């Protein structure tokens, strides 16, 4: 595609994304469906430009004010990746001069909000938690996430998969914490990779892999993944159960559960039972009350621990949406707790960095449910052979899992664990 046409395409897509009425990945996917003539390179450029602008929105909007013409075109120029000569061939002389001026601006010349590129409420909430580490956290959130794989232990050992991937020319290494994980360099296509096609590996962030290890589901047990989504953790749990027992994958979205089906087929699992539910009080849940050994609640949340992947979330979430999520999380956790038999394990997790969705929810549950005793996460991770388990935890005796992108190079995750007494 000619540079001028590609820049116009970028501008049109950015304008759609900045309405913030739908998740960015959905808007980009729809644009590609409606413009099937776009090739792989054009699609990659469009996507990279959009996400670059979302990551550094406040900085780019400030720089754009000194230019002329369409705001969306100016943002597209500032976020455009790759070959500068290619882009310059699409610019007017006035735009070239303006762009050179923008490129000369150093971070030291910027105000704080143009360096961190976060809404004020979120910058304050994160800064209050990490203090002097704030700049390091912001830098990590503004980097694209790496590509992690989880080895399907039903089929292969990690060492064998590593050797196979390297033989295929991929640069990869074992993950630092998850004993099941592999981190790939770059973003290679997996669609035709034998290890992926055969179900030897699944895409799953290293932090997410640790949640299944905390649940520690055993052979022959009755287990529930209460908010299964597309099933990444469901597959990990099913493999840990060695394809025995019964694993229910609940979700309120049948569409998300449909996305689990091809992954299930690759995995070789037959112990997973996807169930679409209307809400957390669905009758299908009530019928299992008191019968379940282990329950994972990876609750709907703000997703602010995943800003490396979904930078639009920092512009779509507000203190009000976070408060509403926390209320829903409490309701889901209360409902899920009813499923457990005495001695059963409950794991609550989010991919949020905010205490309101994490420690506050966990503390409220502990206060309201004296029949559940908290279990320190650090000890459970050590039993699961996770290296440096203490460094992944916060609270007294390593009470909670608390993963930070700048400390652990994973998405931001929280988890708390309880055992039902009796």
Structure description:
46% of the residues lie in helices and 15% in strands. It is of the alpha/beta class. The strands form two sheets. Strands 5, 6, 7, 8, 9, 10, 11, 12 and 13 form a nine-stranded mixed β-sheet that branches. A hairpin with a 6-residue loop joins strand 2 and strand 3. The N and C termini lie far apart (67 Å).
The dominant shape is globular
State the separation between the terminal residues, measured CA to CA.
67 Å
Helices, by number, come to: 21
Largest sheet: 9 strands, mixed
As a whole number of angstroms, the C-alpha radius of gyration is 23 Å
Mean pLDDT, rounded to whole units?
Answer: 95
Helix/strand/pairing category = alpha/beta
Number of strands: 13
* Amount of helix: 40-55%
- What percent strand? 15-25%
Spans of at least 5 consecutive residues with low confidence: none
């Amino acid at each position: 595609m000619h540079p001028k046409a590609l820049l116009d395409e970028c501008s049109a897509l950015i304008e759609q994304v900045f309405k913030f009425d739908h998740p960015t990945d959905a808007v980009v996917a729809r644009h590609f469906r409606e413009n099937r003539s776009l090739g792989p390179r054009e699609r990659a450029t469009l996507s990279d430009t959009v996400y670059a602008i979302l990551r550094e929105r406040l900085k780019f909007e400030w720089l754009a004010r000194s230019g002329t013409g369409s705001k969306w075109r100016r943002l597209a120029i500032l976020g455009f990746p790759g070959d500068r000569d290619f882009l310059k061939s699409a610019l007017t002389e006035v735009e070239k001069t303006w762009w050179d001026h923008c490129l000369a601006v150093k971070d030291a010349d910027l105000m704080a909000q143009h360096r961190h590129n976060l809404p004020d409420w979120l910058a304050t909430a994160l800064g209050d938690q990490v203090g002097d580490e704030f700049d390091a956290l912001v830098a990590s959130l503004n980097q694209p996430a790496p590509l992690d794989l989880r080895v399907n232990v039903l089929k292969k050992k990690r060492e064998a998969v590593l050797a196979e991937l390297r033989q295929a020319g991929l640069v990869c290494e074992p993950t630092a914490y998850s004993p099941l994980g592999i981190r790939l360099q770059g973003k290679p296509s997996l669609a035709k990779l034998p290890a992926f096609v055969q179900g030897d590996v699944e895409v799953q962030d290293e932090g997410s892999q640790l949640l299944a290890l905390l649940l520690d589901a055993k052979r022959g047990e009755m287990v529930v993944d209460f908010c299964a989504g597309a099933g990444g953790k469901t597959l990990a749990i099913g493999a840990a159960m060695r394809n025995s027992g019964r694993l229910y994958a609940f979700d309120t979205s049948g569409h998300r559960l449909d996305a689990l089906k091809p992954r299930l087929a690759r995995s070789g699992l037959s112990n997973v039972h996807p169930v679409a539910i209307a809400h957390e009080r669905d009758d299908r849940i009530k019928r299992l009350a008191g019968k379940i050994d282990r329950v994972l609640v990876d609750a709907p949340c703000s997703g602010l621990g995943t800003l490396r992947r979904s930078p639009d979330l920092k512009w779509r979430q507000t203190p009000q949406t976070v408060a509403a999520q926390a209320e829903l999380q409490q309701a889901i956790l209360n409902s899920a707790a009813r499923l457990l038999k005495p001695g059963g394990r409950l794991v609550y997790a989010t991919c949020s960095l905010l205490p309101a969705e994490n420690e506050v929810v966990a503390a409220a549950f502990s206060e309201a449910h004296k029949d559940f005793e908290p279990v320190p996460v650090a000890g459970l991770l050590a039993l699961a052979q996770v290296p440096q388990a203490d460094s992944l935890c916060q609270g007294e005796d390593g009470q909670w899992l608390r993963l930070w992108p700048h400390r652990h190079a994973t998405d931001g995750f929280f988890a708390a664990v309880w055992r039902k007494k009796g």
